[in-house]
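Per reviewer request, we include the raw input and output of the structure prediction for the construct analysed in the revised manuscript.
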Amino acid sequence: MRRPIVSLAALLLAATATQALAAGKPSPARQAHDAAIVLDTHFDTPANFGIPGWSMLQRHSYEADGSQVDLPRMIEGGVDGGFFAVFTPQGPRGVEGFHAARDYALYRAVEIREMVAKHGDKFELATKADDAAAILGRGKRFVYVSMENSDPVSGDLSLMTTFYKLGVRVMGPVHTRNNDLADSATDKPEWGGLSPAGKAFVAEANRLGIVIDASHASDESLDQMIALSKTPILLTHTGCKDVFNHPRNIDDNRLRALAAKGGVIQINAFSNYMVAVPVIPEREAAMKELIAKVGPPGRNMTDAQRKAFNEGRKAIDAKWPVPRANLDDFMAHMLHAIKVAGFDHVGVSGDFDGGGGITGLEDVTDYPAITERLIAAGYTPQDVAKIWGGNALRVLKAAEAAREAN
């Protein structure tokens, strides 16, 4: 059994918070949280934008529809904005596959812009690092755009300019399977890191002022991105391999190399990358049966299908439970990353609406708990501000400066 992380500082913080609450004031940790620019570098929430009747302005729940981010919950969690991902599942490679991926990504990018335009009094598109503070000053939440899996541009890197014009400022070359740009951390080596097109991708990202995201990339791909890029690398949702040994996580030596070049790791809350999850054949068979009966989860589901899927999944979880990571596990990764790389090189991502979510970090309303833990661990409000948004925005600013220097 894992021991919870409890310290004298945490107990003192809890006592102080109780006193502040009794006095009708926010706790010191909540004050630090609200003073920071709180951003998440990887929201998969755009997957919900095309669901009929789903709105960012309505409060949803994970229990009801599986979602974890919307405006009411952002407000409750003190979340000011984030990078909303243009995610494209890796499909067949080749000309037809590339065209399908391109069209899919263009559609998703337009959906993000349409959400912002529809709710322009609540959200605003951000394209520069300084936009975050400016948009907050206008009383809105900011929306940056990122791309997870750059297969949509792999057949024609000139499309990187197209997506840049659509607002994309962070791009990760690869996802869970190899593509024509790079090897994935969770696939067999094919290129030995980056492909020739992948190396050209790095150069073009630098030229355009796009931050390179090495999440999901193999170790060799990461090494080459760090070596080739003229600007810092961002890991938008990754953990520490020396805390939990999983291919998706980064080891200490690479974490130091990332930090030495000014890069940042955003610790994610994806349970399978944080604790060992056994394969239970009966559970796997039940999930396959559920999907065959109800249909695969996604935007094309009807409300009835979505409800049936969620109820079926809950029943499977109850019958064949598997270990689930919790806030202690998350903080173990974060505090380790801070120790190895320094708090100038660490941030936060829940990987929400894309499979993330752990006990204690179920959705964005739980984000103040991270600040409470950081303050309890002895970090200052200034440190917290860097971790919540300052570090990621610094990386974006460095990419902007490289573009201007070209």
